[in-house]
Design a protein that fits this description.
The protein contains 8 helices and 7 strands. Strand 4, helix 6 and strand 5 form a beta-alpha-beta unit. It has a single domain, classed as Rossmann fold. The protein has a 7-stranded mixed β-sheet with strand order 3-2-1-4-5-7-6, with helices on both faces. About 40% of the residues lie in helices and about 25% in strands. Helix 3 packs parallel to helix 4. With about 210 residues, the protein is an alpha/beta fold.
Length: about 210
């Protein structure tokens, strides 16, 4: 048995996800973020960017309940959900008409944008950090197109040299910005989450702002 398989057998969140029907152990990261920050309103509209395989969308659907909707968006195929309040959309989050596409499927304004997407990890700390920062910049740009004023944003970030610049940009657009590492994250992982609350409506270009 590989060390990865052996680690999984001991991973309480992996085993819990299997028992409770979640597609990813990452579902519990969002659950812990929600418990701490209350970023998803009951009955709200949530967009999950880079949603595949769908663990965050599942957890978000539990939080919003039957009166809410979760848009699970990814350029990859996402297997159908049994939950009726999740809508799957196959699009790139860089799509300029993202707001129009989303509003073809739902009415109302987006309360929360989530992004737990990550590129392929190479083991090169600097390269992995830079790639992840770029993904966060794309997710922020998408959120500025679709998020209502007063809405919330959460994204995975890998720790590294650009986190302070990223925080400066996010603080220009949200009233409250925090960093958080859920206990469901593996201890050896470099991932943290930037949690931004109460969007003020500014539409900056995060890539230009961080140059």
């Amino acid at each position: 048995m590989s060390s990865f398989q052996d680690e999984r057998k001991k991973d309480q969140f992996f085993l819990k996800a299997k028992r409770e029907g979640f597609r990813s152990r990452a579902s519990y990261k969002l659950a812990q973020i929600q418990d701490h920050f209350k970023i998803i309103p009951h009955g709200g509209l949530v967009v999950d960017l880079g949603a595949a395989p769908g663990g965050w969308s599942q957890m978000a659907s539990d939080v919003v309940g039957n009166g809410g909707v979760v848009i699970a968006l990814d350029i990859k195929d996402i297997a159908p959900f049994r939950r009726k309040n999740i809508i799957r959309l196959k699009y790139d989050m860089r799509e300029e008409k993202l707001a129009e596409i989303i509003h073809e499927h739902i009415d109302g304004e987006v309360d929360t944008v989530l992004c737990d997407v990550a590129g392929d990890v190479t083991g090169n700390w600097t390269l992995d950090h830079n790639r992840q920062i770029y993904l966060v910049q794309l997710a922020l740009t998408a959120s500025f197109r679709i998020l209502r004023e007063g809405g919330n944003f959460v994204s995975k970030v890998f720790q590294g040299e650009y986190v302070n610049k990223l925080e400066e940009v996010v603080k220009k657009c949200f009233e409250e910005v925090s960093w958080y590492k859920p206990t469901a994250s593996r201890k050896k992982s470099a991932e943290v989450y930037i949690v931004a609350k109460r969007y003020n409506g500014k539409k900056l270009d995060p890539i230009e702002e961080m140059e």
